[in-house]
Design goal:
By secondary structure, the chain is mainly α. The protein is 77% helix and 0% strand. It has nine helices and no strands. α1 packs across α2 and α2 runs antiparallel to α3. It starts with a helix and ends with a helix.
Length: 203
């Protein structure tokens, strides 16, 4: 592909992203009084948010619970007029999912819940992943391996690394999602990479 074709493809991607952001912004306004508008928001964002939460948590079912909780919070905020539109709606939803996931990662019951779920699923077989992108057995195994790899990191570093290196967000977007400065994001990324490198050398 030529440089001109690359530029055209990038421009087309940017245009689609802008159009999607505008559509979600309009839905956010309508969602203050229309349940159907909020349902459309869920349809447009659910797969991406579940994928992100699963990568952070290392567990698909737990990710679904986190995103469900986040949508409940988001609906209440939209209905109450608390979303001011200064952030893109998708970024705002990422932020709610992030804070909900941090609460889960810090929760003392998490490991026991995961162990109980793994034991119950071992003989029952696997369903299909909600996004329908991969057979659930392979998807869950990959997520568990990712979760184990990232488990040495504090939640803030873990989330910054997933958003940057796996989800592909810019440092500015990550700062907006996490509610911190770009400098703090870069600091978290440096510490996360150093911790993973040290962990790899120790194993």
């Amino acid at each position: 592909m030529s440089s001109g074709e690359d530029a055209a493809a990038e421009s087309d991607t940017d245009a689609r992203a802008a159009a999607e952001a505008a559509a979600l912004s309009e839905l956010a306004v309508r969602a203050r009084s229309e349940v159907a508008a909020f349902r459309e928001i869920v349809v447009r964002t659910q797969a991406q948010l579940v994928r992100y939460a699963a990568r952070v948590l290392g567990d698909l079912a737990e990710a679904e619970d986190v995103v469900q909780d986040a949508y409940v919070k988001a609906y209440g905020a939209l209905a109450g007029g608390q979303f001011d539109g200064r952030s893109r709606l998708r970024t705002w939803l990422y932020s709610i999912v992030t804070h909900t996931a941090v609460d889960v990662l810090r929760g003392g019951q998490r490991r026991r819940a995961l162990a109980k779920r793994a034991a119950s699923e071992a003989g029952a077989g696997w369903g299909q992943s909600p996004a329908g992108q991969l057979p659930a057995a392979e998807a869950r195994l990959a997520l568990q391996e990712l979760g184990e790899w990232l488990s040495v990191l504090p939640p803030e570093q873990r989330i910054a690394l997933v958003l940057k290196n796996i989800e592909g967000h810019s440092s500015r977007e990550i700062a907006e999602i996490c509610g911190c400065s770009e400098g703090a994001v870069e600091q978290r990324l440096v510490r996360a990479r150093a911790a993973l490198h040290a962990h790899e050398n120790d194993t």
